[in-house]
């Protein structure tokens, strides 16, 4: 038993020395372009933008709202996790955009150590599906330390392009 605990502690210590993934840095998540209020990083991946005055972009604010509407029940407030589901603010440090979208849309089942974790598919739930980018940018901001816990105090206005995309998705 003591040997197993020592080996487990060693594995955890080695894992903590793993190089930081590109997703895990504020620099990689930095917004370099803006299309109708939606921000993108250098690789064209949706990202968050928070002004020096603390004004959060609309999509990050929307992601905060959607997360706390549909995801926090399992994944805990502000993406910090729970005894039921993992901390998404941690998961996104190592998860790319495509993987995130795929898991949210299709779900996932993990079985191991006598425990089964199931993430249901949300690809048919328009209250989630239509806002997957919003959820991603919110959790990305939380993952890289760009946004503290809690409701953002200030936000950009919703653009007409965002409103039209929402209408189109919800009606489609």
TrEMBL record:
<dbReference type="GO" id="GO:0009055">
    <property type="term" value="F:electron transfer activity"/>
</dbReference>
<feature type="domain" description="Cytochrome c">
    <location>
        <begin position="62"/>
        <end position="125"/>
    </location>
</feature>
<dbReference type="InterPro" id="IPR009056">
    <property type="entry name" value="Cyt_c-like_dom"/>
</dbReference>
<dbReference type="Pfam" id="PF13442">
    <property type="entry name" value="Cytochrome_CBB3"/>
</dbReference>
<dbReference type="InterPro" id="IPR036909">
    <property type="entry name" value="Cyt_c-like_dom_sf"/>
</dbReference>
<keyword id="KW-0349">Heme</keyword>
<dbReference type="GO" id="GO:0020037">
    <property type="term" value="F:heme binding"/>
</dbReference>
<keyword id="KW-0479">Metal-binding</keyword>
<protein>
    <submittedName>
        <fullName>C-type cytochrome, methanol metabolism-related</fullName>
    </submittedName>
</protein>
<keyword id="KW-0732">Signal</keyword>
<feature type="region of interest" description="Disordered">
    <location>
        <begin position="147"/>
        <end position="172"/>
    </location>
</feature>
<feature type="signal peptide">
    <location>
        <begin position="1"/>
        <end position="22"/>
    </location>
</feature>
<keyword id="KW-0408">Iron</keyword>
<feature type="compositionally biased region" description="Basic and acidic residues">
    <location>
        <begin position="153"/>
        <end position="172"/>
    </location>
</feature>
<dbReference type="GO" id="GO:0046872">
    <property type="term" value="F:metal ion binding"/>
</dbReference>
<dbReference type="InterPro" id="IPR022411">
    <property type="entry name" value="C-typ_cyt_methanol_metab-rel"/>
</dbReference>
